[in-house]
Amino acid sequence: MAETREFQAESKELLQLMxxxxxxxxxxxxxxxxxxxxxxxxxxxxLELTSNGKIPSKNYEIWISKDKNARTLTISDNGxxxxxxxxxxNLGTIAHSGSKDFVNKIKEAKEKKDLxxxxxxxxxxxxxxxxxxxxxxxxxxxxxxxxxxxxxxxKSSYTIDxxxxxxxxxxxxxxxxxxxxxxxxxxxxxxxxxxxLVKKYSDFVRYPIxxxxxxxxxAKDENGKEIEGKFEEKEEVKTLNSMIPLWKKNKKDVSExxxxxFYKSNFMDFEDPLLSININVEGIVSFNSLVFxxxxxxxxxYSQNYEKGLKLYIKGIYIKEKAKELVPDYxxxxxxxxxxxxxxxxxSREMLQEDSRLKKISETIENKVISNLKELKxxxxxxxxxxxxxxxxxxxxxxxxxxxxxxxLLADLLVFxxxxxxxxxxxxxxKDNMKKDQKVIYYATGKSVEAIKMxxxxxxxxxxxxxxxxxxxxxxxxxxxxxNEYEKINFQNISSHDNDSLSEEEKSKLNVVEAENKELxxxxxxxxxxxxxxxxxxxxxxxxxVCISTQNGLSLNMEKTINEIPNDEKAKASxxxxxxxxxxxxxxxxxxxxxxxxxxKYSSVLYDEAMLLEGFDVEDKATFxxxxxxxxxxxxxx
Length: 638
Description:
- The chain is an alpha+beta fold and about 650 residues long.
- It has four domains: about 5-240, Histidine kinase-like ATPase, C-terminal domain (Heat Shock Protein 90); about 255-345 and about 355-380, Ribosomal Protein S5, domain 2, CATH 3.30.230.80; about 380-495, 3-Layer(aba) Sandwich (Rossmann fold); about 505-635, Heat shock protein 90, C-terminal domain (Four Helix Bundle (Hemerythrin (Met), subunit A), Up-down Bundle).
- It contains 20 helices and 23 strands.
- The strands form four sheets. It has a nine-stranded mixed β-sheet with strand order 1-6-5-4-7-3-2-8-9, covered by helices on one side. The chain has a six-stranded mixed β-sheet with strand order 16-15-18-17-20-19, sandwiched between helices.
- A hairpin with a 6-residue loop joins strand 4 (about 130-140) and strand 5.
């Protein structure tokens, strides 16, 4: 006799919450019901394997059928089924987990490793009310002779009645409600839509998901000839899922072509990936992963709407398109997926809980990606340089954003063009080729290699044969400043005003010359005002008369980059105008050191010249042209 029961008050509230808001898209319901079916078969299979032949084996299958006229969609399995008590416990009390109880029993028997159970049945089941106005559950447990049917409209009550069912298993019949103005539910009666959803969400469920498809073929007469204009319907049983995920195959059985085809078909790219990484990890946290580095920058990588993350599967069930928790920000360009049995999910499976195992997976993937990039750098340097041209700024960001914490992980992946090399070199190569008495790693910054080569400061390094790394990305110098050193050798910008590398004898000679020219240097500083903080003689210039250096750690390029960020407070580099004491222009100025007006004009022109060579525009172009013309006229009038 049919028995009607009321949902508990808290269950009613939770039910409405789930139906109306907990899932972001309605199509999730099919994923959940297939997951439950797979769960039920897992339970049956476990009991069958541990029954010493008492429980018969089956051809485990999940079936989907549809009836557009009756507006029903049915998902069936031949798994363990449910007793009446289990129906009440699992479906009548929302969010109660039959699977959780089952897992606890397995833990007690220390045989969990032999079983693969998905999710919480009661929660996923009720997601179907997003598309159905009533649901029937026809089920028979392997542990009972009597079958039952559970019926509910998902509002306030449910009914349980007895039913004659031959074999164990569960059949869920959804009565799909009529489409509304903002939803087209008729699409769930179309073969292509069901196939698409199974392929998207449940392609790698281990049991076959089958459906009968009906298609029309030309009718034929008794002689086998086609009858023009006449067709007959043919039924075909079709398996909708592949069941064996590529990432769970033995690595030796997966070819590069397999990976490339998988990447292009699953991540909507027309090019093969630059690098494919197949990760299989067993241990405290076990998971499989495929990670790909695109061979071109994703078109929206630098847009605000770009979402990082890897596709997440749990036990073969698609859970989330972009699990951002699995990817550090500096590797946001990678694409791929993770499949694990070990992650915890919240009630909707769409939000990952804070879980130490999740962090462990993320760290492992990060380390695997980096180790593969190091292998690529060693084995195929040209291909690595292509990678670095595309994504090198992200590695620099990884160092900068971690405040240098990741420098040991990433430092050997950094490559630079340099003064003495035609091809990019890494830091180890630079270190190995340092001069015997060289104390620091020199670098220079600029918009391009050509711009850096125009820097006046580089002349001495050319003359002495000392190599200089060229930093052409805005992020480069910020990252280098966070690194501070490489294998205990400090970095130094060639534009830094630093005399520490001079010998005591050289410092003494410089002090003497500066003392002799104190009046000239003071008048130059007075003429420039607050444009510079200091004027000094230079030891780094050869042919050029002047250059701009900075002190206290903030370079001109860093100042410019920081000030381009909207902020009330502006950064200010401490500028030093360095003058070449051996240049003829300095000697000529020394002869007029007491003429403050003339020295002021020369100083202004030299300052603007130095800023231009540093890659910056002249701020006051009118004054620059006026001073330049007056000095030229004065020179020609002699």
